[in-house]
């Protein structure tokens, strides 16, 4: 938690990963982020993984540091409260993050009538409004056919919802950018962020699209070989798989030295009339010749021998470790200052992270947990919408709003 | 291209994916982004994929809409120019994006002495400053062992550098957030964004870490099964693989209906005493019973039959298509308004994307290509550092700077 965005108020009507991570990043930089949900929880409220008591570890991970308001979004009065929240007054408000449909009761047209300078970040599936989620859009971009061992042609989906995550982070950037523009020109804006456009633009930005355009077909599947440079997993004498990578000339020379391959590599360079140090593409083009040298070098040493030699030699490498080992890794979880043990709405206490970066000049504030569903209903109706206690009580009685159970 | 950040000046000293995408997003929102590189190009200047003439399609994809300055960063005078660029005066400047080492000649301490309110976004590998790149850090977080068919235990690396991309987008958000804070408090800040922290925090945000903590081990490898809900690829009668997904109750009922499985699913629900519609976790828990029903339903129909039925029925689905098919897909590339045919520094003309989102209220400005290396050296030295023509000529003669060849 840092205070970079202190004073801002963002309203979030969302589910799943992309829009909630957008709100999470804003909240962890100090914005007041108010998430509203259907009474009983939205479609992501029971999403796996679950704690033994049925609470969603996923939901409480993605909604840290937010406030929660529970509304009956199936009824006109509940919908009107959602609209009023999204468009509540204040220079530091009028910021709305959502993945509700473009043409529903939270359409930009509808909301603009309530607040002309509203900034809305709208996460979508396909840009034309049709249904799409990370995994179906990923399937349309060739990646599952490029992923996995070359001797298997089954498509391999990613496990990490990369398009959702990228959309959430880019969306937070876009929202803050639109706020800077509004401070200059007073204009409201809707920023539509369809996963399909984020994914298509990214495949183009990284050169995949131009490559395929000129080659007539996408790059072949090649297991863990790093495309266009030297990198792959190799197996040590004791059967451990290590990933090694050499893109820069320095990374290459360090790897070759640490594995004692200088002589053999020089001989191969002589035979082929190339210099591997100066052109990472040549290492890739001739990888079928290089791999056997590295395979033998790894096979002759244990992981326990290689790890310190690689570290001492400045090699870019990494061990494959399961997540349970990552949890004991002081660099990732155990002693990572990003993480702090806090109590979560599930009732469980475990270490969770605050803002993903570190600002040495600022004090890192405590990690804040996710709210219980509806925990801030009364507070928000009173403070943001200036409702009286009598009005709030009436809404509870009518079942239009709910507090935490 | 949109003008949200018009007037800002950002200097970028970077390579590879994370820091350059951060600069790309800023540039495509109208900031003036000046990238400096070593004369002849940095370590990413010849990164694959390459055009036939040797130009990098990757480099020209990641550096669109930026200006380029070429300096000899191996010499003190070149390094001093880089420092002066990063810290050049102006309220809308003092924004620096880099992946140079934390303790080198572009350290925050060094730069702060030149401009006290500098905001620096520093992309790192491991948080302790040790070498790490997307693929080696990914290996440390268990994902390669969770990815791929359940009948194969080889680790599967991702092909899309998801941690780099997330770091770039989050970094752009952090930089603009720090600028908002500076406008309020006048303070400079360094935001350190190590891939290792971005990755560890994300694995926690999505519940992977808490799940593993309480289960004692990470979730098993399960091919393309979507964890905790219903989703997988199925094969049609004509051998086409389609991805289908049902997380929400509506997605589930639409899928069951469109495949004519209502009766069989109801019978299974009766047998098991469960309701699949109301709890996506039950669909996952009983997937071994559900899969055969879906397998038979897909195997009885061709892709050409299923596609319109799925679209008409509002099913969340997607076909696996190679990237060459995506290039013909009007939703992704061919008729996508994000893309515009422009000439690139390689000399090639092909369609490339501007900003990844759409703002219906604003006019989309033309997509701007990447610069030629050194194309803006003289302009930037003159306009940003106020150097005289004589001084610039001297730097050229001394080989400290270079223009485009």
Main β-sheet description of chain A = 7 strands, mixed
CATH architecture of the largest domain in chain A: 3-Layer(aba) Sandwich
Mean pLDDT score of chain A = 97
The total tally of domains of chain A equals 2
Poorly predicted runs of chain A: none
Based on secondary structure, the structural category of chain A is alpha/beta
Q: Can you tell me about this structure?
A:
The structure is a homodimer of 405-residue chains. The first copy, chain A, has helices spanning 18-28, 57-62, 76-86, 108-112, 134-139, 143-146, 162-185, 195-205, 208-215, 249-258, 262-272, 280-285, 287-299, 303-313, 323-326, 377-383, 389-397; strands at residues 9-13, 32-38, 67-71, 95-98, 119-124, 189-194, 230-235, 241-246, 317-319, 339-343, 349-353, 401-402. Chain A folds into two domains: 9-203 and 331-402, Crotonobetainyl-coa:carnitine coa-transferase, domain 1 (Rossmann fold), CATH 3.40.50; 230-319, formyl-coa transferase, domain 3, CATH 3.30.1540. Chain A starts with 8 loop residues before the first strand and ends with a strand. Chain A has a seven-stranded mixed sheet with strand order 6-5-4-1-2-3-12, sandwiched between helices. In chain A, strands 7-8-9 form a three-stranded antiparallel sheet. The first copy, chain A, has a two-stranded antiparallel sheet with strand order 10-11. Chain A is 39% helix and 15% strand. The interface between A and B is large, with 160 and 160 residues.
């Amino acid at each position: 938690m840092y205070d970079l965005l202190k004073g801002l108020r963002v309203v979030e009507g969302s589910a799943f990963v992309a829009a909630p991570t957008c709100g999470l990043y804003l909240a962890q930089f100090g914005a007041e982020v108010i998430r509203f949900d259907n009474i009983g929880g939205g479609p992501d409220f029971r999403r796996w993984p679950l704690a033994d008591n049925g609470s969603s570890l996923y939901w409480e991970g993605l909604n840290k540091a937010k406030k929660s308001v529970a509304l009956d979004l199936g009824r006109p009065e509940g919908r009107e409260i959602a609209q009023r929240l999204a468009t509540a007054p204040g220079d530091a408000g009028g910021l709305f993050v959502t993945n509700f449909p473009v043409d529903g009761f939270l359409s930009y047209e509808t909301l603009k009538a309530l607040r002309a300078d509203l900034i809305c970040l709208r996460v979508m599936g396909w840009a034309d409004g049709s249904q799409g989620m990370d995994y179906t859009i990923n399937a349309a971009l060739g990646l599952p056919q490029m992923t996995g061992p070359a001797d298997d042609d089954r498509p391999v989906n990613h496990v990490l919802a990369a398009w959702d995550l990228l959309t959430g982070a880019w969306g937070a950037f876009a929202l803050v950018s639109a706020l800077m523009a509004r401070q200059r020109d007073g204009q409201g804006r809707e920023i539509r962020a369809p996963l399909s456009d984020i994914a298509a633009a990214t495949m183009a930005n990284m050169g995949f699209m131009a490559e395929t355009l000129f080659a007539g077909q996408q790059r072949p599947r090649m297991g863990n070989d790093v495309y266009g440079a030297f990198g792959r997993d190799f197996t040590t004498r004791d059967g451990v798989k290590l990933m090694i990578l050499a893109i820069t000339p320095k990374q290459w020379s360090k790897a070759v030295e640490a594995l004692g391959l200088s002589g053999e590599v020089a001989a191969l360079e002589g035979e082929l009339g190339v210099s591997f140090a100066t052109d990472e593409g040549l290492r890739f083009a001739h990888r079928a010749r290089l791999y056997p040298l590295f395979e033998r070098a790894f096979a002759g040493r244990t992981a326990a021998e290689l790890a310190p030699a690689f570290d001492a030699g400045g090699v870019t490498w990494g061990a494959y470790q399961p997540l349970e080992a990552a949890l004991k890794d002081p660099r990732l979880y155990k002693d990572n200052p990003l993480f702090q043990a806090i109590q979560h709405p599930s009732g469980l206490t475990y270490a969770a992270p605050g803002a993903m970066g570190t600002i040495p000049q600022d004090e890192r504030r405590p990690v804040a947990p996710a709210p219980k569903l509806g925990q801030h209903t009364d507070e928000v109706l009173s403070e943001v919408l200036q409702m009286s206690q009598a009005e709030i009580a009436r809404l509870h009685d009518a079942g239009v709003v709910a507090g935490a159970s």
